[in-house]
Amino acid sequence: MTKEEKLNQELLSEIRKLHKKHKGIYGYRRMKMVLERKFNRTFNHKRIYRLMKLAGIQSVIRRKRKRYQKTTPTHVAENILNRQFVAEEPNEKWVTDVTEFKYGSSSKAYLSAIRDLFDGSIIAYVLGRSNNNALVFETLEKALQEEPNVTPILHSDRGFQYTSPRFKEMTEKAGITPSMSRVGRCIDNSPIESFWGALKCEKYYLNTYETFTELEQAIDEYINFYNNERLQERLNGLSPIEFRAKAV
After folding, report:
1. What does the alpha-carbon distance between residue 191 and residue 53 come to, in Å, rounded to a whole number?
2. Residue 72: its pLDDT value, please?
3. Contact 147/134 with Cβ under 8 angstroms?
4. How far apart are the C-alpha atoms of 146 and 132, rounded to whole Å?
5. Helix-, strand-, coil-residue percentages of the chain, each rounded to 5
6. For residue 228, is it left (φ>0), alpha (ψ between -120 and 50) or beta?
7. Burial 138-175 (b: 16+ CB within 10 A, else e)
8. Helix (H, G, I), strand (E, B) or coil at 97
9. How far apart are CA 33 and CA 201, in angstroms?
10. DSSP class of residue 223?
11. What is the pLDDT of residues 165-202, one digit of tens each?
């Protein structure tokens, strides 16, 4: 057996372990980054793709479209972000939204989160049983506690929470510049939509949750994994928190 054949066997073994450990959420690109870190060398992405195909391994791909409800906005902001999703430094541009989960026989939970466009990290999040103002207000409060004295652009849709007088008051007091998507243009807030897709595809859809506590634990686990362990090509093969630490 040649050295390369032996290496392929080692790679296949590690690929199977990672596939099982992370419940199939790694595609060949992310698998490549993890393997490069473990073996301390560079691999051609075609090699990893071929080995995964040989082993019958592929990532889980599953998406759901978001449903939108019409609202009557009170305080609407312009689309200042204007799909400029690249940030040069931490806390320059934040995006936020709320998404829905189901658990038990017919119960619903709602996750509000704020994501930093610099490194893609989740700055703050709150899971609640109601999609209300308090959920969004608490998320913003947590973000400002986590990152005090920052004045980012904060982009959202035109949901009732974000156009409420209280939310406007909170952003003005913190020196935050609000930005809002145009009506019916979910692509205006695609970075947070992308995170919802990853969370649901890589965690939520792979399991069933009987209680709110089970769902909450799963979301806590995933966001911790996403921030600290999930390597990303656009971050030079680092996790969001690793990339952020280098910048700071």
Report:
1. 30
2. 52
3. no
4. 22
5. 45, 15, 40
6. alpha
7. ebbebbbeebeebebbbbbbbbbbbbbeebbebbeebe
8. strand
9. 20
10. H
11. 999 999 999 999 999 998 877 889 999 999 999 999 99
Specify whether the CB–CB gap between 189 and 156 falls below 8 A: yes
pLDDT at res. 153: 97
DSSP 145-174: HHSTT---EEEE---TTTTSHHHHHHHHHH
**Lookup: tokens for 226:** 């996403």
Query: Whole-angstrom Cα distance, residue 126 to residue 137?
Result: 10
79 and 180 Cβ atoms separated by less than 8 Å: yes
Per DSSP, the three-state class of 128 is: strand
Q: Which two tokens stand for residue 199?
A: 């969370």
Contacting residues for 67 by C-beta, under 8 A, at least 6 apart = none
- 216 — phi, psi (to 5°)? -60, -45
Distance between CA atoms of residues 16 and 56, nearest Å:
10
Query: Angle CA(146)–CA(152)–CA(156) in degrees, nearest 5?
Result: 95
Measured N-to-C along each axis, helices 212-228 and 190-202 cross at an angle, to the nearest 10 degrees, of: 120
pLDDT digits (tens, 9 = 90+) for 126-168: 999 999 999 999 999 999 999 999 999 999 999 999 999 999 9
